[in-house]
Every structure is written in structure tokens, then in C-alpha cells.
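Thought: the user wants the 3D structure for the chain below. I'll pass the sequence to the structure tool as-is, report back what it returns, then summarize two notable features.
Action: structure_tool
Action Input:
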Amino acid sequence: MRILIISVNHQIQPAQILSMSTDGKLEAFEREQKETFGSFVKSKILERGVQFIAEEARHGQETVIERLCGLNNWGYANIEMTPEERTARQIPPGYNEDQNLSETEKARCHREREEYMVERILGEVGDAASILIICGRIHTAPLADRFRELDHSVETTDLQDENWYIEDWDQHMINL
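Observation:
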């Protein structure tokens, strides 16, 4: 299987515009970033003949890519663990930012989530020859390594490498 992994900052994923400003500039900026993100992903899907899209995303919050897949009738799965599954595996909310958790425990949580993502993808992908995965940066290398261990061809890219993408939305808006 041929796999492209796109690394993201999760702020770009929700389809809903979450910014608010009195003059509408924040909303317009966020909308442009998200629309360009959707166009970027669509171009990757079309140029690579992607047959299945997997996304690490918050449950209960429609994403730009989930909406895009629905509009185009493309195979899609949210590969993030549900909150209930996290609880069952003793993975606390916000564990990566929790200064009271040891690095060993954080690494365990990451490994469990990444293995879950791989299992979900392999369980849902069917006979797709080309897939696309969207995930947070912290998971890109481990997912790529795992799929390579399983003899899949893996490429990675990061939105930070795209000239249209602005990582720090707050700082960008302050500088306008």
C-alpha cells in the first residue's frame, strides 16, 4: 500500500470557524486557511489516486476533511480513540501537556494511541492501494515507521512546509 501522511496542527481541522472578532478579520483568516487546507488535501487525493482517508480528529466535531470526503463520497475514518477507549486504556485527557506525568507514561500513551490508529486503518482500508493519513505532528514519525515495518511505502509531508500555511494564527493576527 502507498501511504501519504500529512502532519498538522489540530487547529486547522475543525470545519467550524472558531475565531471571533468584531471586524470579521479573524474569521476570514481562519476560513481562508481551512479552505486552502481542504484544497491542498483534495489535490493530494486526486494526484495520488487516494482511495481511503484516515484522520486523527476530535470526536463529535466535523472536520474540513470529513466534510470534503462526504461531499465526494470518498472512504473516510476518524482514527482517533474515543474518549471511552482512552479511559479504558488509562490515557488521561491532555496527557501530553500534563507536567505531573512522567515521560515514560506519556510515551506509553502515545504508543497505545498510535497502535490503535494503525489497527483502525488496517481494519477499514479494505483493498485500497493508496491512502492518506492526517495526524498531529507528534504521531507522524511513529506511524510512518510502523507502516514501513509492515512493508508499506510511506511518504510524509508537513503543512508547515507549505508557503500558504501559517502555524501561529494568534501571532499572525496580532501583526496585521
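Final Answer: Structure generated. Residues 25-48 form the longest helix (24 residues). Residues 2-11+50-158 form one domain.
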